[in-house]
Known about the structure:
Elements lengths: L1 H7 L21 H16 L7 H17 L6 E4 L2 E4 H23 L3 H14 L5 H12 L4 H18 L4 H24 L4 H9 L7
Antiparallel strand pairs: 1-2
Amino acid sequence: PLHALRERGVEYVEVRCIDLDPFCSIGITAEVIRFLDVFLLHCLLSDSPRDTPEEIVAMSVNQHRVAERGRNPNLRLLRRGEKLPLQTWGSELLHECEPVAAALDEAHCSTAYRDASAAAAAVLANPALTPSARVLRKMERDHDKSYLQFVQGQSVRHRRTLLALPMAAEVNARYTRMAEESFAAQRQIELQDTLPFEMFRQQYLSPDMLST
Length: 212
């Protein structure tokens, strides 16, 4: 990874801690993607001073609290030595995101980004709308409170949905050709490889390589 960063830099930002949406056949909705665009642009444009040791500890505590009790309307998070309701802090962030959503909508001649932000605000205000609450309701209603039955049912449903989508013959042929070419390229690379793996590993991890 260090060699890759030095030689090629960073071409994208990897956003972590986003679970797949079990109610969407492709794992994430367009609405959520738009809200992520708004939020990430807000992060990019906002001041971002270095985290203090105290803030790092508080962030770890907050993450665990939200993961374990995020739907609790009385949940309080740590911010600069004070305790703040999750909904209050979340509302502040969403308010700060409003100009970004408006600018994106203006650029795209739509209301989609403001609609996405409004949907996020609705979930923040009503914990019953969160994905976890929806999962629990469906488990209780349709799957005898079994998480395993729920995920198996959703898997079958999404598989059926995706397989029912039409695929043009030329698209299928293109992907088949790409797969065959990829396997052929892999075999060619493996045939040309003469360096023992352990030697490659040592060279790859060697600090000396970073200075060349």
